[in-house]
Amino acid sequence: MKGKSKEFKKAIMAEVHEALVVAFKIPDHDRNQRMIEIEPENFQHPVGNTENFITIEMTVFPGRSLHAKKTLYKEIAARLQKSQVPPNDILIILHEPPLENWGIRGGYPASEVNIGFKIDV
After folding, report:
1. Of 61, 90, 62, which Cα lies nearest the Cα of 75?
2. In whole angstroms, what is the distance from residue 89 CA to residue 55 CA?
3. Is 121 part of a structural domain of the chain?
4. pLDDT for position 50
5. CATH number for the domain harbouring residue 91
6. I need a surface site. Which of 24, 34, 90, 104 has the fewest CB within 10 A?
7. DSSP string, 27-79
């Protein structure tokens, strides 16, 4: 929700990134994040949740195991508590378009490029 401090937003993005490094084994330098803030009057969150309710949507390469995904969810929930976001205030959604649907490195499908790290973790 709009109105959070710059420090809060930076902390959230840093902790989500660290969770990805741990769970999905991505390289630390592989950062591509954005935060979209929504005006309070344009956002309804579930009854019983706090004003720190957050939806985290990730578009990721496919291939991660259920174990890696569960690790990611737990890592995010644990890490965001440092920023006063209770685990029940976190909704995580993963989008996994096929590698041929990613245009990277000068216009090549990701399915034809050496990504540089394993995605089948």
Report:
1. 90
2. 8
3. no
4. 92
5. 3.30.429.10
6. 34
7. -TT----------GGG----TT--TT-EEEEEE--S---HHHHHHHHHHHHHH
- From 11, 6, 16, select the one nearest 37 (Cα to Cα): 6
Q: Which pLDDT score is estimated for 70?
A: 98
Pairing status of strand 54-59 against strand 90-95: parallel
Output DSSP code: residue 15.
Answer: H
User: 114, 85, 98: which is closest to 59 by C-alpha?
Assistant: 98
Q: Which amino acid is at 5?
A: S
What does residue 57 show for φ and ψ, rounded to 5 degrees?
Answer: -110, 130
pLDDT at 97: 98
- pLDDT tens for each residue of 5-62: 999 999 999 999 999 999 999 999 999 999 999 998 999 988 999 999 999 999 999 9
Per-residue pLDDT at 94: 98
* 89 belongs to a structural domain: yes
